[in-house]
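Exercise 7 asks you to align residues with tokens for two separate proteins.
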Amino acid sequence: MTLNQGPGRGGRLFRVAVCAGIAAVLAACGSSPRAPVENRSTGGISIPRVDPATLPGYEFRNRPGYYQVQPGETIRSIARNNNLDWRDIVRWNSQWVPNPDLIEVGQVLRIEPPAGSVARTTPVAPRVTSPASTTPAPRVTPPSDAGAASIALAWPTQSRTIVTPFDDVKNKGIGIGGREGDPVTAAADGTVMYAGSGLRGYGNLVILKHNTTFLTVYAHNSKLLVKENQSVKKGQTIAEMGKTDADRVKLHFEVRRNGKTVNPLSYLPR
């Protein structure tokens, strides 16, 4: 290129300006060899382009247990996606990650413990991103009455003689033999739901409620000794044995669980 503007003062000034511009361009090229590139992890700010081969850990790329940082990722997002604690990743890469908030696209990180090391911190579960994926709600156990699932009953009479075996279709309970006037006692603590003779076939009848699950039934008594809504204790005498609406002296005894009759012998002591 010819820069001949004549020997005058104007020509000399022109040549000085052109040379200064060229020097500035050369100086800029020498001090900033990196061209700007947009990196989404920095919120859209332009930063110099970096040759991945010059980044820490690049020689370990594509090896098992290592991961190459992608645009938009952070230490925490990498840890989350690999079910790790981000502090473990920082610890395993401490030689080239002095600041966990400054990692570069293309950098290679160790994401498995090195030999002799373990993940000492608790892994963080991956974030659920799919709309169809939901975290199950914690199971809540509804409150229930104490002893409602089962109940310990006492024999309602001194006699253990079974004169009528249990039959869920025919009699729905057991018949316990005895003598007229023998005491009939509450099989467990409870409240008198019914005391009377209004149910045909049961004679003088007492029904006790023990909780929201269990009822007991005492039938064919000669005499009732409790009233409705009265609280009774286990072993308390509630009636006297008889044969009202029955062909012989006996106590007809039922156990009902959630309204259904069950074999009383399953709940009575042997």
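Second protein for Exercise 7:
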Amino acid sequence: MAEHTTAWQQHHPPEARPLWHWAPTGLADLPRIRRDLRDRISEHRTDGRPAVADPDMFVLAVDELMSNALRHGRTPVEVDIGRTDDAWLLTVCDRAVEDPPRPALDRDPAEGGMGLGLVAHAALGEGWYASDAGKHVWVLLP
């Protein structure tokens, strides 16, 4: 079966207050960043309650964008997480501006590569844009 993909739309995300930043240099950095992220979101509270409704999906989304940038983009890779008034903005920048994010639409799940679609399904919005720094792929999570 032919694989159909649709690139995410090119547009800017909403403004967000910067909170956390990482600069992974390779896939070996991902377990450390996931642990650090889990620690940070467990400590982050809004009105005394956990600020992240679904920590597993949150970590999965960050991991998916980071690993895609490291596997399919060009280094250096920058990971930023910020807050809008009512959502989380996850942004990953790599240098492969010519290669926008394209979730697989009809790939056999056994072949992998379904992460972008899963992340988009959980997101309030997603997209990407190019700047002098590179390709910025972003998702907005509740």
